[in-house]
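Good morning,

Both structures are done.
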Amino acid sequence: MYLPLFILSLLVSLYPASAGDFCVADLNLPDGPAGYSCKSPAKVTADDFVYHGLAAAGNTSNLIKAAVTPAFSAQFPGVNGLGISIARLDIAVGGVIPMHTHPGGSEILVVIQGQICAGFVSSANSVYIKTLNRGDVMVFPQGLLHFQINSGKSPAIAFVSFSDPSPGLQITDFALFANSLPTEIVTTTTFLDKATVKKLKGVLGGTN
């Protein structure tokens, strides 16, 4: 009966609460696989735990007619080391967040305005798609391909939260067609014809 209490008191004495409450990112030091190094506690202020960047709409005047405004550790130092982050999605009419993955974390999306068709593909190639309206929430498991499309007749806004302060992002179309990956390799690995690959590289700015 007394042993668990003893162990608990020992842990509390070894790990005082103030020593591990947070690890505000020191943006003057490089980011690494474990995140940013901690800012000196003496230099931490309330401003480190507040971020104002999600109030303004993102610029959707681009190819995908959408914008992602992140509040990851690089923008919001207070989330560093806490296993959480957030971002804003603005999707114009006809806009899309293309197929992509977040290798570092799972995602929860909540629709604030408009209508969004969202879905993901499991590792067993099962497809899960749903049309979401204001107030609806959908989760996307870590590492799986997923997308969001404005399926309504007005601009859509959503907020997405992640289980990591830097969840990472890889957009499938850009990974295949927006770089110097040789056309021959793309055609072989995707079964697309060379003309289609060249066309997509031209649209997305790829070479070779």
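Second structure follows.
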Amino acid sequence: MSVTDDAIEAIKQMIVDGELGPGDRLPREADLAERLGLSRNSLREAVRALSLIHVLDVRRGDGTYVTSLDPSVLMDAMGFVVDFHRDDTVLQFLEARRLIEPAVTGLAAQRMSEVDIDGLGVLLGSLGEEPSVEELVANDLEFHRRIAAGAGNPVLASLVESISGRTQRARTWRGITEEGVLARTLSEHRAIQQALAARQPDVAAAVATVHIAGVEQWIRQTLVERA
């Protein structure tokens, strides 16, 4: 377990125990880090991660607060963080995605219309220079959905969409916690779009494999570290 995970777990426990509730302000950073036996850097990373999934609200010049979400919603978000590290079911979906989606991407390189391929470029460009994790994941889901639809096989498109949706929260968490993942994801998406535009099925499938395997590898390593 990483030190950031330790910090997240400690804050979660304070919410579970009722020590912190919706609207409550966290103790001062220095005091909380000392009390939990954590470095201030790891505590900051935990606060950043939890603010991105709307568990904490960082108010500049004021402090950090538990959001006003009701307790059941708060615990659902926190429960995901914990369950994600304990449940390897997501790996099974990513393995299936790695086996199926590159082949579908290769078909799309042969069958997808020029207009739809150009539309992928517009979609990627709509993110801007510094998208949020939520914006990137939503864009990611739409990007892969369009490619699957472009393969011209509704059965495969439905299968890809179903499998991809089951990995959404894991991909969000990766975006929150892994440094540089936003830029890397965009770069890989652009490479896939370029291979589609060039009508290179083998290249498109290979890039898609690398792209999906990167998520799988990160999650596998995360689960190993947690264990």
